[in-house]
Predict the structure.
Amino acid sequence: MKLALGPVLYYWPRQTLLGFYTNLPHAQLATIYLGEVVCSRRHGMRTADWLDLARDLARTGVEVVLSTLALIESEADLRAMRRVAENGEFLVEANDMGAVRVLAGRARFVAGPHLNVYNPQTLAWLGELGASRWVMPVELGRDALALLQPERPGGMQTEVFAYGRLPLAFSARCFTARHYNLPKDDCQFRCLDHPDGQALATREGQPFLSLNGIQTQSAQVYDLSGVLSPMRELGVDLLRLNPQSAGTNSVIEAYSRALQGNLGGADLEKALASCRLTDPCDGYWHGKPGIEHVTA
Amino acid sequence: MRKKPELVCPAGSLPALKAAVDNGADWVYFGLRDDTNARNFAGLNFDARTASEGIRYAHDRGVETLLAINTYPQASGWDRWQRAIDQAADLGMDAVILADPGLMRYAAHKHPKLSLQLSVQGSATNHEAINLYRDQFGIRRAVLPRVLSVAQVEQVIHNTDVEIEVFGFGSLCVMVEGRCALSSFATGQSPNTFGACSPAKAVRWEPEGEHMNVRLNNILIDRYAGGENAGYPTLCKGRFDVGGETYYAIEEPSSLNALELLPQLTAMGIAAIKIEGRQRSPAYVAETTRIWRAAIDDCCAHPARFSTRPQWKAGLTKLTEGQQYTLGAYNRKWN
């Protein structure tokens, strides 16, 4: 099992973003996913900028994958998706079936976490279209994976979302703009003020969700560090760790040492507890509500 | 003159199906009694006998029937979904409405004469996605998720020969259908995995002094003051705290009503309009079908003079969630 760094799902200022990628412990990562997956209005990085960054990162020896927008609504969104999908240089993660159509038969691709792969038949179909890796939908867990793994097409790699606030839903509506009573088309990019999303709690103060523009995430940080062995036994190839505004390098270090067998049990939990934004959850892996935390 | 949009109406039971047929539906859609459809609620849906009777009732009156097998087959239960497809073919359904590509492939290979439609749960929001399902499985019609503006709907229509259907009325998903795991995050069951959002068995009403708390798997979705109208706790329609404010942070309890957009939708070549509500009563189905039938007929007879009649508005408002309705994402400002 190796480590993949998921795309930054938040809107960070360009310099912050570039600094983040410069300072990563590149040697500990097999793969880095780059690109804007959430909101087409975010324009700090243009496609050409992402490609420049991709080339810089690829020189460190890491595999770079360009991720496409999850929710494609307009012709402009489609053009942006095609620019990424047809880049001709880097592997692409398709996050919607429109991207799959552009990539099918043209290039190998990664079937991203937003493609709804729930059964071996759909996975086989994506394999025939050219998928060489799939990312399990976040709401699936151990039992589903155990049924899917033996059936996966030859050469198909499996990646599991293992760390970060869970990307749970997308909407046409921007919830960040809504919070500030701003129209989406004049949102003033208020999501820049929330580098890890904006906390949503119940009226009893229980942390519940996190608003990130048109995306809704979990308030809790999904963390599968407690089930590395079962994942390895199921033949998982890559663990996806999602970036957060601070402490990402420590998360990568902790997972990396754990995979090498140099950190585990209470020490691993202690290392991760100090860099998690909020309490952890891992219910999905165990077939329970995602918000629950099962692994002690 | 464009073709008249077909009216596609919901049925959670045989009486609801008859209500749809009797009041002017062109199509009636329903599901089987299990997790193969996205309204997997106790006491709802059809078995082989009621389905067969419903199909006969509809066909005798020139109405087409559509079986919703629009959840994602779980790896542990593939056979159930496959059987549902076989059953649709055996029953003589006019079409099936599906979300999962693996299942579509099975249907296209095994039952080449069975007409395929792409469910809103398939989450295809653009013409490239829709044309993928056309190229791969020969789908005839696609239902658009409730995330596109009217102008974006028109763009889709212009770029595909697949018939495009949109939602006209009913409960409103704020999230892109098929891409929302909020319900499983809170309860363990979601539309994609189980065919239900915010499932009833996870709901708990809990009086507390003057207030009524409503919980979903113990998570407080809303708290109502005495006398306040309390709605079903669909988890995206509760009041939550964000940045020190308590409000409907995701969406108010309201329904979609696109009646006033009929002339525009018709002019752009919408093939069909869907009424949501398989979980609703036969009376709801009768009333929504009757009003939309009249409105579509009126709009197509006199497109330039069309306006929504007060009695239609009043009739539909009574059937909405919280007596409120919205144009949703059709109106760009809603976003």
